[in-house]
Amino acid sequence: MSLTQSRTVVGKSWKVLPVAVALALGLSSCASSTSTADVANSSGVTVVDVGAHSNGAATETKISVPEVASIRAELPKSVLASGQLVIGEGALPAGSPPLAFVGDDQKTLTGSEPDIGRLVAAVFGLTPVITNATWDNLFVGIDSGRTDVGFSNITDTEQRQEKYDFASYRQDNLAFEVLKSSTWNFAGDYENLAGQTVAVGSGTNQEKILLQWQSQLKAQGKTLTVKYYPDQNATELALSSGQITAYFGPNPEIAYHITQAASTTNPTRNAGKFSGAGATLQGLIAATTKKGDGLAKPLADAINYLIQHGQYAKWLAAYNLSNEAVATSLVNPPGLPLSNS
Questions:
Q1: For residue 132, what are the contacts with CB-CB under 8 A and spacing of at least 6?
Q2: Does Zinc appear among the keywords (predicted)?
Q3: pLDDT higher than threshold 90 for residue 133
Q4: N or C: which end of the chain has fewer CB within 10 A?
């Protein structure tokens, strides 16, 4: 399943390495070198160019991040000695805007996920090294120690916590995309779906949730029509032509669609979000490391520094993801239950 499908699976991992090195690691030729914007100046401040080469998926924003000595001191000695934070992305083969994809220069790995990794690396005073792999190979990299941390839209689950440590940094949300002219809103209540026609991806977590709501409404004598389309273009055409009320999908994907449709004759908007973990638990996206490697706490502390000092909010706003903000980063927070994995 692709990153654009909200499922109870983790994101992907990347490294900013020369192509030859990436190939030697058994990853992919889709790699890029560290941006000069990620080099700290003489005062220890790094200017991270968020959204660079994003081809409209983000508002390019330069964000200044100081090295924080107290947080840097928490890092494992092996990471400190390397001088690098190796960040994994699992965006092969095609990537998924706005999360992780190859930029408009055909080489830069850009997106919200590599950019939050670069911001964290700046707090540590380390050089970000980003590598792109398939979803499965992202975890192989973490397991083997080639990759320090995965920042790749990875959902925190109970099952994954058996093998990995987590530091949360975004809510894991689904959302409803409607035409901007539509008056319909989800408002957090599935009963508002009565009488509506909604498109969803087959085999996804959001389909499971939508079909459950359909069943509940049917028991009340109400209808909810669920539609399936072969690809996203067909779904967007159905939305713009009024064949469906809404598209129910991953919130980041919808945030991207909204930015792309903004200047068209049929702009869209977000009509409400819902936790990817269901009604009883707020799903969380988290930085993912090998269990017991000592990185989870400094990662959470770095993310919390960015939250407290405003860089985090600027990063989310650049990618139109402010509605997925967390108040604080937590180490191994409650994950998606095994019963719903």
A1: 12, 13, 14, 15, 22, 27, 28, 30, 31, 89, 90, 91, 92, 95, 100, 102, 109
A2: no
A3: yes
A4: N
